[in-house]
Amino acid sequence: MRERHFVSGSRIWMLLLMLVIGCMGAVALPVGARAAGSIELGLPAEAEGAEITLYAVAEITEGHFAYYEPFGETDYMLEDLRDAEKTEKAAEQFASVARSNGAAGTAKTADNSGKLTFSELPDALYLAVQTGGQDAVEIQKALIPVPYTGENGEMRYEVSVDLKYSVPDGAVILHKEDETGAAVAGAGFALQKKTYISADGAVPDGVETGQDVGGRYMWEEVRRDLVTNEQGQLSVSSLSRGTYRFVEDQVPAGFAVNTASAYFTIEKAGQVQEANGVFTAVSGQPAEVTVVNRQNKVVVNKVDETGKALPGAQLVVKNANGETVYSFTSAEEPYELTRILNGSYVLSELQAPEGYAVAADIPFTVTGTEEQEIALTMTDARQESGQGSLTVTKTLQDQNGATLGVPSADFYVALFSDEACTQRVTNVMPVHFADGSSASVTFENLELGIPYYVGETDEQGTLVASTSQAERVFAPEYPDGNMVTLTPENSAQTLSFRNVFNDIPIGYYIEGQLTVTKKVLRGTGAFNTNEVYYAGVYKDEEYKERYGELIKLEMNGSSEKSVTIPVTIGEDPNSSVTYYVTETDKDGTPLEEAEGLVFEVSVDNAVVTMSPSHMEDKVTITNTYPSSYTPPASSESRTESSGNSANGSNVRTGDETPITLYVALFAAAAVVLVALIVLFFVRRRRSR
Fold it and tell me: Are 454 and 424 in contact (CB under 8 A)?
């Protein structure tokens, strides 16, 4: 609070001291000879509207004080008031007594004359107290004697006193909201005051000036770096009277700038307190101002060719870095993107509703200006039923050419209409890897005669040039190019590409190729057969820990059959692994443990050691039958069982159960049964 002393307030105390001295000098006033007195109070212009109440504290009779009720409750002896400090304290205590006891007084309201007069006053000691308007000005309490002893010893009944006063500080609370009334944090402001200057006065660079009925003025900066809190508020105190404005200089993220200044006037005193981030007035009348920021808003309309709302489209909004900032599905009502940051964006369709083609991307820019209104309409056309299909196969390898496998991973591809792969024309399709080095996906209903460009993307449809997968960086490569044109003669085509990893990602492994070949001989010549044989790949030479599933070798009338399987080598370029290969029955029991085989089993390269430098290997299993061997007629049934036959001569990987023999036995049993039935009826007839 700043005090401004425009008065000689010591006159009050001098008057009182002179009165006290006069009383002590036994200056007696004749009873009944009193004249009516008056008190004229000099007030500042700010006191207009302030209320002053005059109380009679004590009667002056024959040079002595006699308290009026209730002022006798104080501890002060008026005769002891010999200095200003004691007199001020006495005035404070008398005012407290008047307030707490509801003392009667005469109240008057100050006008703009700067004077306030109380007339027809009997002899007494009076107390002038401000009882209203403290928010505009604070006037000091005063004890005033009527009459008082003048400089020449005469008694004066017209008392004129200029009262001390101070103009209390003001305060302001700013509320920051969006258009829905929700609080907005992080808005920054500068506070400026309207200051009048001379017609030719110098003005700092960049300061705005103006002219009104009061003269020439400038907007002087009072505070800077004022920022709204989480409740959307800020407060400034200790403000003198005048006109101010808030100028927004920091726009919260996702909001449009409010270019209009927020004006307010400090006319009265006010104090503000803060509790839990909320500012409220505790006294006086602080100014309050509300500033509204409109949220950046983009409205997305998804429609068909007739303009009807098209729900079910999966859409994304990506920023200039290709990062997805919004992901949503269209509905019957337009979708609103609120508090979107300033910048450049692309609206992209990931998945079109069934029966519709993917729409072209729509670029747009958010500038955060008040007048900007962004509404986007994306139209999906009906998809023509194309006759073509394209199967895209993706493989994995490291930079040294080693094939990589992965237990589980998802990648994504799409088809584009341009070579740069900027305009996607299909849905984004997942390519799922499940414990392997390659995976495929097929695009259906493609049009014939137009070029399609295959591009690897992320899940949100952003083209991949080099990206992170499983904590490592890879780049797609298209050895045969990435463009395919389907024709009526070749409407179903394939395209392969690969990902090349700089390092082997965590969880990935180097994959080798192991080819197992089954050869069947009779004597020294090839033996064509329909048998089904099995082989197992093991991690140990005791054949206890099998790697993967059994290898099924269906001969299908041939003497030789090969099957290639992927095998794990290791997780780093220095890895190596050893596998053990043997023939088994269909249950995985190695034939080395079987007895009475009609053929001999030999395994070429039964122990295989593989590494990144030796990623492919072959194992040949040969079954040799005797030159005189003749397969049973039932051998084509291939029931795929093993074990010793009844005579111990037909143990094989396949099954040669003698069905003909069983048929003959069933026929013989039927003949015997018929004979017994006939005999039974003949005997019965004879018994009659």
Answer: no
